[in-house]
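Re-running the complex after MR caught last week's input typo. The corrected sequence lines follow. Everything else is unchanged.
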Amino acid sequence: MTTAAAPLTPGGGRTLRSALRRFAESAVTPLELDDVLDVFHPLRAGAELRGRIVQVLPETAESATIVLKPGRDWTGHVPGQYVRVGVDVEGVRLWRTYSLTHGPRADGCISITVKAIPGGVVSNHLVHRARKGQMLQLAQPEGEFVLPQPLPRKLLLVTGGSGITPVIGMLRNLHSKATAPATDIVLVHVNASESAAIFRGELRALHASGRISLVERFDDTHGVLDVALLAELVPDLDERLTYACGPAGLLDALEQHHADRGLELTTERFRPVVVTPADGEGGGTVTLTGATGGGTELELDATTPILDAAEQAGVLMPSGCRMGICMACVLPMREGAVRDLRNGALTVAVPGETGPQGVPIQTCISAAAGACSIDH
Amino acid sequence: MATITRKPENPTAHLTPEDIEQIGIELDAIRQDVIDSRGESDAAYIRRIVNIQRRLELASRATLLVSVFPPAWVAGTVGLSVAKILENMEIGHNVMHGQWDWMRDPKIHSTTWEWDNASTAEGWKHSHNEVHHTYTNIVGKDNDLGYGIMRVDEDQRWHPMYLGQPLWNFINACFFEYGIAAYDLELGKNLSVPKEKRSETFKRNAKNTLRKIRKQATKDYVVNPALALPTGSFLPTLAANFTANLVRNLWSHSVIMCGHFPEGVETFEKKSIPENETRGEWYVRQMLGSANISGSKLMHLMTGNLSHQIEHHLFPDLPSNRYAEVAPKVKALFEKYGLNYHEAPLPQQVASAWHKVVRLSLPNGWLETTTPANAPQQLALLWTMATGDRRTRRAAQARLEQLARRQRTEVAAAA
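Corrected-run output:
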């Protein structure tokens, strides 16, 4: 009898693993194995991506750096990239995007630096209430705002306010290496006031050691920066490749300025999408984007439930009690704002800020409060 | 109990339409208070309960791996029973109601939750959230009233088959999860349709339910016992899982019976419900159609806060941990409008519900007119009614009612 041992194919191990997994799932159904493992090891490989806060470092009165130990599946990032973070604020999971403020670190941790903006629910929570040990949801790093390789000979970085956050990640990474980079770097760092300037100590230290040339501008002492004066601040402006991150006003002006001079510019804009809910009177256009809705557009007033309108337009909609108690009509809103007809409460979905799957809304008691797109 | 509109004294007769709308406004305000203050501590509560439940279930199942030792069997079985009850009552039922949807956590959300029960989350959400909670206690529309197999109201004509209903009810209690699954599928109604004419929806749901039942049974009766094989604990583990399911079934059945069955809870006639029932009218129906269980915090937890059935029916989407705090406000509202807040300890409510099941298994008036002295004649009468044709039954029923009326007048005269 000649029986050759079956060769161990690359897929062999996986098949055994998936068989074991199926067996384990059959022992814990209706839970998934991951639900059980999450109880013990939420940062393991294969888990939904999360991060545990290991340190909260105040930067200024209104900003803080949050150092996170990411889950094992974190793919790593390039300085300048950002990460979407899901934070439970007052029990509600809200998603925001923050720049990663360290290059890859030896301890495997990542960090974000958050500036509390007035009225900012998540930023204020992270700056003032985040504590060591808390868990945040993470997505994998994203973003094109990274330095070119090889590095140019001369670089100009322009940042406004929290626009420094992707740039500090680049600088830390460049200067953590044994050999300092040959690139000549000028950083124009614009802030409302000196006390509001994040990382000013670290940046001044880099300047003092000659690693960068720091040009600080404070609105309260120097007045708001006029980009036309940039050539005065940076005389060899035309020789430099420019990277800029900051408020829209600054970036718009800079784009115009660089275009006029025929210079190359790479920018990073925070909050590309702004959803402004309509006031109490206004409705909006509701677009049903999924396979069933097929792109149906509905013009709605502020008092008609989305469910009723969609059905009148001939769309097959999931529905139930029609009074807001049974949750049979819940659909994900990808973008836009709706108003709860029972109490006027607004629910807003901003792509990139609210969960990856959108915000589930009850269509039977929700009216449009501005344009919104619903996946159905 | 006859439906509310057929009673000599309608308990809502003293309410004007304006009163009813005012009740709606006041209840909306109570709801809004909770929504406005809902937050971090509530989220922490449900996450903690989920965490405790999962650890308890895993620990119990681990203990059962050596359940050949009696102490391990007892500890594992008790733990598993409690874990299953928590999963179904305080977690599953409430999560599927969307009580925690506001957290926007996809792991604890009505659209993603699946529970440790024979019925599918989808089927349950339809029959329970949608039908039962919307048409609560409307005879003929709310199948929770007797689950389509029992006589739950005097107005339903008595038939000899109802004599068996205490037994059905007990069997249903023991295998409640399967009862619910069958009921979610409207199995009785659908099976009476010829096979080729059954709806696609039914066929799909039936398939999903069978798959769910198979997975559930494989877990409890095959995989977990098999894991215990090395210690020779296959059969003890199997028995433990069966016991835990039985305990969970009996417990959840009892709690659910207490919600709408006890004597004094109102039922409603289909035709008495206006086409466009206002929010106030809907609220009043929920107020009168539900009953609470009084008791300790542990009791509230183990009933999934269905001990606050009235509050739950008024606000099915508020987090269950907040019912206790709104209960006094709701109770005050009942008092203000002269309505009966039906509340009693568990044994009393269970007894009352069972009393109703037994009473209605018999012809109207039979139980109240029977005394030890006339028992033989009454039994003979019952025998006649059970074996006779419809005309005999009608005549005997008339006699019974006459007897009941006479007794009532005598009692009144004696008083």
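None of the earlier attempt is carried over here. The radius of gyration of chain A is 25 Å. The CA atoms of residues 6 and 12 of chain A lie 10 Å apart.
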